[in-house]
Design brief:
alpha/beta; 355 residues; 2 domains; FAD/NAD(P)-binding domain; 21% helix; seven-stranded mixed β-sheet; 21% strand; binds flavin-adenine dinucleotide; five-stranded parallel β-sheet; single chain
Length: 355
């Protein structure tokens, strides 16, 4: 494999987290490249279902340095608008994004980390992993999953309600994806919505702004040694974005408790009764995409990797960015990733003696 060169930092992943890292690495005066497996800019936002809208207004969905412009006629921008914003962001800051380049493995190599990709090998003095979760959809182990003869798909494969017009569809999941996809299907399909517990909606006048504020308040409380405020989870699971609110208020979003198993033709409930289905859509979340870090031998519980802030325990040259609250409060959101990105760049600059 040919050598591509040596840099201070390789950023793995060119979604919003990778771009935020690039912004702060540039400000810290470090040399870096961003390696992204996608052909085009936008990270996971290129692959969402058609009707997905942000749960915050544009001004609350911005990366460091550049406010997201509002989308004409929309209070909450759609995914295409985010892709446009991220495309413009990396051009504006001339971020050195190489694509499509997939990082396959990161190895220790004396004073360097060796970053092996599908095209060449880089040497870096530090690595920021920002690969997101979208490429690792999670489906729970439910009895009978292989027996069901209908269609099964995950959130990542769902596109639009017309694909399911007139079909009996079971949507599994009580988070934002589950609620939004259930609402999307409510008029076109014969919908059954299944959640592990009673859906917990945030108050109607609360959107992603409040989630960010709650995450920030939690971070402050923990930083100052005060009692844990509970952060985002204390507010509820589902942002009542307009389509979800409309479907809920029309009585179309009645959630059932989880079924006990899948059958050949549908699902079986706790009382033994059955419901037929043409399709089951699993809106059951994601896991962090970390397989490229396996050679470092750092894996912790639940597929996470032990960190303090963004820095990996056991490998101070490695930072993890954007995966969820475990790598910084609200770090898996557009507005929330800026702060941990700044902190990661600052720590790397300190480690490399660049400050
Ligand atoms: P990604 O966008 O997934 O980017 C990671 C990039 O890394 C991708 O381009 C991927 O191809 C690449 N990659 C992966 N593995 C490799 C590898 N080995 N080598 C090279 N490249 C690799 N956030 C908000 O702020 N507001 C919202 O309203 C909002 N709504 C959401 C709704 C849904 C349904 C979901 C799922 C998320 C939502 N989020 C929202 C959360 C969040 O903004 C996204 O999950 C975001 O895409 C995460 O950004 P990221 O950069 O960490 O990961």
């Amino acid at each position: 494999m040919s050598s591509a060169g040596t840099v201070d930092v390789v950023v793995v992943g060119g979604g919003q987290a990778g771009l935020a890292a690039g912004y702060h690495l540039r400000r810290a005066g470090l040399s870096f490249v961003i390696l992204d497996a996608q052909k085009t800019p936008g990270g996971a936002w290129q692959h969402t279902w058609d009707s997905l809208c942000l749960f915050s207004p544009a001004a609350y969905s911005s990366l460091p340095g550049r406010l997201m412009p509002p989308q004409q006629g929309e209070a909450y921008p759609d995914a295409a608008h985010v892709v446009d914003y991220l495309t413009e962001y990396e051009q504006r800051y001339e971020l050195p994004v190489h694509r499509p380049v997939r990082v396959e493995a990161v190895h220790r190599d004396g004073p360097f980390l060796r970053v092996e990709t599908d095209t060449a090998t880089w040497r870096a003095r530090a690595v920021i992993s920002a690969t997101g979760t979208w490429s690792r959809p999670f489906i729970p182990a439910v009895a009978g999953r292989t027996e069901f003869t209908g269609t099964q798909l995950h959130t990542v494969e769902y596109q639009c309600p017309t694909d399911f017009a007139g079909q009996k569809v079971i949507v599994v999941g009580g988070g934002n994806s589950g609620a939004q996809i259930a609402a999307d299907l409510a008029h076109d399909a014969d919908l059954t919505w299944v959640t592990l517990r009673e859906p917990r909606y945030l108050a109607d006048d609360i959107d992603g702004r409040a989630l960010f504020d709650a995450a920030t308040a939690r971070r402050r409380a923990l930083d100052e040694g005060r009692t844990d405020t509970g952060g985002v989870a204390s507010l509820g699971d589902i942002v009542a974005v307009p389509p979800v609110r409309a479907a809920r208020d029309a009585g179309l979003l009645k959630a059932q408790p989880m079924f006990t198993r899948l059958t050949q033709t549908g699902v079986q409930w706790a009382d033994g009764t059955r419901t037929d289905a043409d399709a089951v859509i699993w809106c059951t979340g994601f896991r962090p995409a970390l397989s490229h870090l396996a050679p470092l031998g750092l894996r912790g519980p639940r597929g996470h990797l032990p960190t303090t802030g963004t820095q990996a325990l056991g490998e101070p040259r490695l930072h993890l960015l954007g995966y969820g609250d475990w790598t910084g409060p609200a770090s898996a959101t557009l507005i929330g990733v800026g702060r941990p990105a700044r902190e990661a760049a600052r720590q790397i600059a300190g480690l490399l003696g660049a400050v």
